[in-house]
Amino acid sequence: MNFGRKLACAVLVLVMTASVAANWLAPAGYAKQYREATDAPPSSTHWLGTDAMGRDRFARVLYGTRISLLLAPAAALLSTLMAALIGGLAGYLGGVWARMAMAVTDLFLSLPWLFLLITARALMPLNVSPLVSVLVTFMLLGLLGWTSAARVLCTSAGSLRASDFVRQARAAGLSGQRLFWVHVVPNLKPVLYAQFWISIPVFILSEANLGILGLGVAEPMPSWGSLLKELEGLVSVGEEPWKFVPLILLVVVVTSFQFLLSGQEEVAA
Amino acid sequence: MKRHKSNLEKMVKPYGKSIAIALLCLGMLGHALAQGGELRFCLRTEPKTFDPLKVEDDASGAIRYLTGGVLVRVNRQTQELQPELALSWKVSKDGRQISFHLRSGILFSDGTPFTAQDVAYTVQQLMDPALHSPTGDAFRSGPGNVETKVISPTQISIRFPAAVAGLDRLFDQVAILSEHSPKKEMAVLGPFMVADYKPGSSVLLKRNPNYWKTDSQGRKLPYLDSIRLDIQPNRDVEMLRFKRGELDLINSLDSEYFDKLAATSPQLVHDAGASLDSEQLWFNEVAKSPIPGYKKNWFRSANFRRAISQAINRDDLSRVVFHGHAQPAVGPFSPANKFWFNNKLKPQTYSPDAALKALQSEGFRVENGTLKDKDGNAVVFSIITNAGNKYRERMAVLIQDDLQKIGIHVNVVTLDFPSLIERMTRSFDYEAIILGLTNVDLDPNGEMNVWLSSSENHQWNPQQKAPETAWEAEIDRSMREQASTSDVKKRKEAFDHVQEIVVEQAPFIFLINKNALSAISTTVHSTSPVILSPQTYWNAEWLTVSAK
């Protein structure tokens, strides 16, 4: 592991630890409104100041980080599994199955992602708690984000199907199911890992995009998207640099994931 | 703390008064010489039309205001009706007829003379069903044709098939067209005329050389040579351009921007006080809506709605969300509407304890921090609002926190606007909504479509075949009563009664009235921002711009 990846790993561990320890580091909580101290600058009481409703920004950043960092990998896992199931199986079976699966994938890829998410979000029942809204938001991301990975896995599984060792195994009389689980899936693992790591920053950014549009995680629960909404007023950018903290954190975390990803790609190669 | 005088102060002090007088004279001279120049501000959307009869958007409305000549004008400062192209007018007792005595010797911008024939032509065009004029809709009080009778070149009488409440004030929106001008709607009687239009970029208005008004010294108005209206939907860009001096005014300012600008340049910002616009919360009372029956029972209970209203801290909504640039709302009309506001109404006091007591008297009880109804159902509901409107989102979050104090759990959901409208008007699949009403009309007749139970915009329970409650029937009766008479006193009494019922029954829980905020460069003179639209340039013909 080179220095860059070690640093990325350390950053992610640090950020994740801080977010998990949010209850101790920011006992005020993310929802408590200090209505007499709205839009306050950083102080000893509120390290990153307060937002427009007087909520402690430091607490909201930590809790928002926790949500993004715990649920983006969960969404990535869901989408990777779906991709493995649809793409991997289609690639392994080949022929009409592969063509059908890829047609469905192409159809999904041609749909405008954001529009689809907004529509799906609008069709959801209204009376769900903020926690459920978080889970649903990331589940939607997972359910809709499998397509690119499925194409890659379909191609990889197709190559494996045509490889010499699979042909030999088939010639030796191995059944289709055993062949798939024992010889094909283990050889797809590096690609699966790579797809998993690729998806995490994508989902983090997707949630942030939804949050900026006000369509992500429900209030009062914070997420990086809802925190980034504070940067909407360009005029205020230079005057209140502490509002940049969620953005800096997002960039640092996504970059760290990209560093780790480059390591996975090397493994996959 | 001792303050040290600067050298400049020491030099100036002995001559202070003389210098001050000299500076004042210079300022006045400069102002007097400031005739001419160009005023620049932004339209936030592309104007959809230059035809004054087809106006339905703000941008086209702004151009109509600056270019259109009207018979009578509502003075945006006093809210009184004042003569313009008409020297005098008279409305018949039955409210069906209006007679105007017009000024003579007036020319359209292209030199065509203005006569009563033009007024007749305008009214006929306005009421032509094929034109679908939004301005004309306000005059449609009953079936039948409008009759115009030109008595002389300066006298005309217009008769409507049924009484039109507030008939004379409606002519504030009717820009007179020329019957004979080859330029059609581009020939105008207002202070400015459209000189150039670059779609997506700007509209240039130039002084109308034939404008009829003069100042007390006989100088022709308007003072300005031109007005450049840049089409700019982005508020941030508008603000930056204003700060850079590329724009002279911002007509309707956001409270956050207002404060930021006030912090650095307090002389540029103006808060004219509460406007006519309101923000409100309402519950879904539609009988056929797909929400559980027990929730329908809560929402259809006036006691429940009043208790919710009492548990909302409107002072905090005003202070926290709008930075103090909003007033806690009292009822359906803002106190800014000087004549029609019912002065007997008092602001709702914030009292979570009283709200809880009222709910307990209805059989609600608090168990483990959660309010439950008499059947044991936890009081949980969602409030939806349009995504991207940060003020409404923030109000919803504050209300969520306020109601939590009496054990009510609120889920705040922001939806894209089309989805919200779909739920609000078609599927009725929602529980509570926060939205706003933009009032441009002082007269309650402009809100007939909100208060009549049969109306589509009777949002809490629209399109009722017959009023479902006694109080809605009473509102219907009073609204029709005020609309069917031209007796202003009777109209006022009827609408006061409507306001009292609305406050008592709380179908809309009125939250705040936003203040009219604007920003005006110090290079623009004779401005006097008001609460009525257009807040900053309502007296455009009197404005002057000095050199930057």
Secondary structure elements and their pairing?
The complex is a heterodimer of chains A (269) and B (548).
Chain A: H1 3-20, H2 22-25, H3 57-93, H4 95-110, H5 113-123, H6 130-144, H7 147-161, H8 164-171, H9 176-212, H10 224-228, H11 245-268
Helix pairs in contact in A: 1-3, 1-11, 3-4, 3-6, 3-7, 3-9, 4-7, 5-6, 7-9, 9-11
Chain B: H1 7-12, H2 16-32, E1 38-43, H3 58-67, E2 72-74, E3 81-83, E4 86-91, E5 97-102, H4 116-126, H5 134-137, E6 147-152, E7 155-159, H6 167-170, E8 192-198, E9 202-207, E10 226-231, H7 235-243, E11 249-250, H8 255-264, E12 269-283, H9 293-299, H10 302-310, H11 314-321, E13 326-328, H12 352-361, E14 365-367, E15 370-372, E16 380-386, H13 390-404, E17 409-415, H14 417-427, E18 432-437, H15 448-451, H16 470-483, H17 488-505, E19 508-520, E20 524-525, E21 544-545
Question: Can you give me a brief rundown of this structure?
Answer:
The complex is a heterodimer of chains A (269) and B (548). With 269 residues, chain A is mostly helical.
